[in-house]
Amino acid sequence: MKIAIYPGSFDPVTLGHLDVIERAAKMFDRLVVAVMHNGAKKPLFNSEERMGFLEKTTAHIPNVEIAGFDGLLAEYAGQCGACAIVKGLRAVSDFEYEFAMALANRKLNPQVDTVFLMTSAQYMYLSSSMIKDIAQHGGSIADFVPAAIHDDIVLRMRKDD
Ligand code: PNS
What we know:
This protein is α/β, with parallel strands linked by helices. The protein has helices spanning 15-27, 47-57, 73-80, 92-108, 128-136, 147-160, and strands at residues 3-8, 30-35, 64-68, 84-89, 113-118. Strand 2 (30-35), helix 2 (47-57) and strand 3 (64-68) form a beta-alpha-beta unit. It is globular and about 45 Å long. The N and C termini lie far apart (46 Å).
């Protein structure tokens, strides 16, 4: 059984994330999508909300499971029995940061390798921060987030106003 973990902030999940999830789910027997803490970011949505968005978004993919973990990714990957950490790469600008994390994670847990999936071209510019900014300024995010959670995100962000 080949298990992979796809970690991220997912604040919120975007069509770019969903594209990586769908492609990675075809490559592994089981894919654990893990909502984790990025020390450099302050999330807008709490982890239950982010996990709920992911549950709804991935309900059609049977070998995907959603989890939340607050500690080290390398440790959690080991706990899950994962052989791989999946990361999406959008542009060269992502590379340096992701490369350093992949090396650190392999040092912390040599059993787990990081696998990079190149973004599909139409999602190259997408990021959760950009989507939040557009929504906060009243713009439409319909082309950027999965349809299943579009209204939930918009309603939740209106509550924040
Ligand atoms: O979607 P993001 O914010 O780019 O995801 C980054 C994330 C959450 C995967 C990364 O910050 C992470 O792995 N956090 C868990 C804590 C950890 O293991 N830190 C050391 C990474 S080398």
